[in-house]
Automatic annotation (TrEMBL):
Residues 102-111 have a biased composition (Basic residues). The lineage of its organism: Eukaryota, Metazoa, Ecdysozoa, Arthropoda, Crustacea. Signal peptide: none annotated. This is PiggyBac transposable element-derived protein 4. Residues 23-76 form the PiggyBac transposable element-derived protein domain. Residues 190-237 form the PiggyBac transposable element-derived protein 4 C-terminal zinc-finger domain. It holds the Pfam family DDE_Tnp_1_7. Residues 75-111 are annotated as: Disordered.
Amino acid sequence: MIVYTGTNIDIPVVHKKDPIGMSGAIVKKMMADYLGRGHILYTDNWYTSPALCQFLHDNKTGSCGTVRANRKFMPKFNGNKTRVENPSSSDTPDSEEEARPHHERSRKRRKTELFIQNITMLNAYNLWLVKKNIDPSKKPKLREFVYNVAYQLLEDFGEPTTNIKGRRPNPMPDRIIDAYSRHYPVHTEMANGKKKPRDCYVCKHTTRRQKKRTRVVIICNECNIGLCIVGCFRDYHTLKNF
């Protein structure tokens, strides 16, 4: 960021005959450290000009943005057709990347996607460790964290599939399959005139939040385990990994 102070100290003075203009000089100043890396610069119509696009192209940088039709050296627009005074050959690839076979470009893109995914998961893992304030000696491995994220995404958005012909086996446990037909909350048994408390199974064994011990007097009639009536009962009977 460069704060405009009304002087030409930060932005070099542009000669009147220089087609790139003051707006282009600002772009050159801001992009000085990023040219030649294959980036794409997006600009509004105050910056976009044929001269600037040519400068960026010469420095291996893409350009995309809105334009003013009356800009100097701008191609003439006639309805939906555009006439370019000096079109470049469309038969010549613009870069070495475009000259490569399609399968090689696809493989390279896939490697880039996997790299971005790995970096994203690593950042998420580090943020999770900081947020949970986990003891470094007891922290789970990155691979375990990635598996848990994948499992949770599949629970929320995935659908069971199989390559086995015939009747498809249901991978979900009984507590989820019949959650609405046979599983409902009941009070625990009485002891000395009071309901006997139990530990909430979800609070004690959860993998989605910090484990804790919660005493409850509600159990599932079918599973016969203690569950908090709000949240935990629903999670236990709807999520494979709660």
